[in-house]
Design a protein that fits this description.
homodimer, MgtE N-terminal fold, CBS-domain, Tetracycline Repressor, domain 2, 3 domains, three-stranded mixed beta sheet
Chain lengths: 441, 441
């Protein structure tokens, strides 16, 4: 965590000196990612185990997996033992199941036992991202004993900013910051230093995005994770939450348009094709439905080809309006607790925005077309279709994430694709049928 | 920061008891937001100033502004003085400039001076979000003196997890965690405890998204902010970064579709209309250009109305392909340092994905149309147009954020609107001109 000077060491004979200057594990990991697999393994083998562990924890998941699967199992186990358990579990989650067992069997039984327990949790839950190396203090102890205990345990624990106070049944009764402890009068009992706290904790099976929301809401450094009986299982720390927030923001944006939620520019391109193709096919089927609507009005278009010119403008404009509403709603669901009443008020708000912007854009379109074509009725049809489709787009954009969430799905997933299907289909239908009623005989 | 028990107090006579149970400022703020302005002001006036300050810091910006602008200036100044300077500046940034002066003049000259200095910084830079209440330790002091100093300053400072070590010229020479200090042998000089550090700092005028990226990269709790000469100005803390990340993720998604980057469901709807309308107009002009392309081929459509049925499918599919590339690239730019070479490799990757998905979707479309219409040539024209437009969409989706960034603009801003203009216009042109060449006489 702290900014430590690089320790002196003889550079490993791995055919490069990239790593010699890297002061921080995150930078060393970035440099490692530039090397070949053989060089990566060589560098990691020659680093002190604790530094190798820190670097491995920072490596991209797929790079770390390749290294662990190809390295000598004993070397790998030695590095894994030095990692914080939550980081080790993150890496092991990537490794092929068979090889994971080989690695775990090469570790000491205690280390393996702890990691196996952590590996059973869903990596998308609080328990899947929590850290188990925490300082527990008994509520009967004195503040002075607690400080002594902390000083003796300090080296083994990741971030002793808080100590967790438990009763004789190991249930969490309170949280003290180092600062609280240092400000307590000598001789005070830990129980009295805790006082009566409104404990804010999270259940072990809570979704990790919920964990991030709570920690962000309260500006905590760590959030205790408890089981159903209130026993402390571990803590989620602020740096895990920063990772979760970055992942969630990406997942929202990528999911909205039907890309793979875990994609980045390092994803193998064929993997990206496999993740995106199903949504492209769904999009194609959606747009085939819109095309069928146009096909029903083929006769109208044959009579007046100008309709085909204006038709995409209606759909495009309503699509854009809807996406604006969609983006606002998806982000709101990602950052805030959101009760049902407030959610539907937000849809109403989008509807009002849709009506006003629809009226403005509709009138603009109406006048422009009247000026360009001298066809007053065509302008009126275009303007009305635009207004109606934009209102629909705004309401749909606001509702789709809420509906997806109510169905137990990710509110962002493919929402843009569903929205476009709706605004395209409805836009074509409204415009072409109004045109059929008022413009053609 | 710590989870403190609520202090006992007589509930204020404000016609509600909502706030009596709120243990945490963030929860109290959430409850305050449900009240009328008069009730909000009454509750804040009756709270102890430090608690009112904490609650005010957590309030939504627009709510906080209304409270400050309507409250008695002396009451408001009393609360502002109790806030951490970075929080006070955030709130004051929202207040009308004239009233801001009134409030500052009601504070003590020292407090006002500090806030006025902070208010000069751009709120989107490191200096605009930094905290100035930090613990400075001279490098000549002993570790024991430093610990004594920290214990005496602890109550005034926001988060003493690190102490900042400066030389006699006030230049930053190192950072020590509380943990480092507690582990140092008594009698050690602070200078020796620091050793030789590779200092990771950020310049005061760095963009706040860059600050978030660096802090997230190194998993730091705080990042020191320095001026051009290396003097320490303040620190940005992990909780600020969590706020920045949530804001940036929202700004990316909202900006992409041309909504206001700071919009949420609490934004007054007319404000939203004002923020979205310019982009809707630009979108309309873009789609008018696409419509003009269709208009050039009006004769073709009059001959074969089926073209108008298929034409939107080409544009829609290429638009979706492009948005997938766009989302990947925007998120990558948001979370990682990204050199020019790697960026264009990422565009190449999108091009490959576009070619393969384009070939697959093109063939699907080609065969479906041949089956449905028995028109082999129409299928071939549709398939080729789809392939070409999807490749264009993928390359454009990958490039637009890079181009916007190279132009010094936000890589997300309106990117989806530009992309759709391109895929629509090109899709119509390619499809209708291929149809003109091969299908019509």
């Amino acid at each position: 965590m702290a900014q430590q000077p690089p320790e002196k060491e003889t550079p490993p004979p791995c055919g490069n000196e990239l790593n010699a200057d890297a002061a921080h594990p995150a930078d060393r990991a970035e440099q490692l990612e530039q090397l070949s697999l053989a060089e990566q393994m060589c560098v990691l083998r020659h680093l002190p185990a604790d530094e190798a562990a820190e670097a491995l924890a920072e490596l991209d998941g797929q790079v770390a997996r390749d290294v662990l699967e190809n390295m000598d199992a004993d070397d790998a186990a030695r590095i894994l033992s030095e990692m914080w358990p939550d980081d080790a579990v993150d890496v092991l989650d990537e490794v092929d199941e068979g090889h994971r067992d080989v690695l775990l069997n090469s570790m000491t039984p205690e280390d393996a036992l702890e990691l196996r327990a952590l590996l059973t949790f869903d990596p998308d839950t609080a328990a899947g991202v929590m850290n188990t190396e925490i300082i527990l203090v008994n509520s009967d102890a004195s503040v002075d004993d607690a400080i002594l205990q902390i000083r003796s345990e300090l080296e083994d624990k990741e971030m002793p900013y808080y100590v967790y106070v438990v009763d004789s049944m190991d249930k969490l009764v309170g949280v003290l910051s180092l600062r609280d402890l240092m400000l307590s009068k000598p001789g005070t009992q830990v129980r009295d230093a805790v006082g009566k706290q409104d404990l804010i904790t999270v259940s072990f099976d809570a979704d990790k995005s919920e964990v991030a929301r709570i920690l962000g809401h309260y500006n905590f450094l760590c959030l205790p994770v408890v089981d159903r009986e209130g026993h402390l299982m571990g803590v989620v720390t602020h740096d895990d939450v920063i990772d979760i927030l970055q992942d969630e923001a990406s997942a929202d944006m990528l999911g909205m348009v039907g890309a793979g939620q875990t994609e980045d520019v390092d994803t193998p391109w064929l993997t990206s094709v496999r993740m995106r193709l199903p949504w492209l096919v769904i999009n194609m089927l959606n747009s085939a439905m819109s095309a069928f609507i146009v096909y029903m009005f083929e006769g109208n278009i044959a009579q007046m080809a100008l309709l085909a010119v204006l038709m995409p403008m209606v759909a495009n404009q309503a699509g854009n309006t809807g996406q604006q509403a969609l983006a606002v709603m998806i982000r709101q669901l990602a950052t805030e607790k959101f009760d049902r009443r407030k959610a539907w008020f937000a849809v109403l708000r989008e509807a009002k925005i849709g009506i006003l912007t629809g009226m403005i854009m509709g009138m603009l379109a109406c006048f422009s077309i009247m000026l360009l074509t001298d066809n007053l009725l065509l302008g009126a049809v275009m303007g009305s279709a635009l207004l109606l489709d934009m209102i629909l787009g705004a309401v749909a954009g606001g509702s789709i994430p809420l509906i997806l969430r109510a169905l137990g799905r990710d509110p962002a997933q493919a929402s843009s694709i569903f929205l476009t299907a709706l605004t395209d289909g409805a836009g074509f239908f409204i415009f072409l049928s109004l045109a059929g009623l008022f413009l053609l005989t």
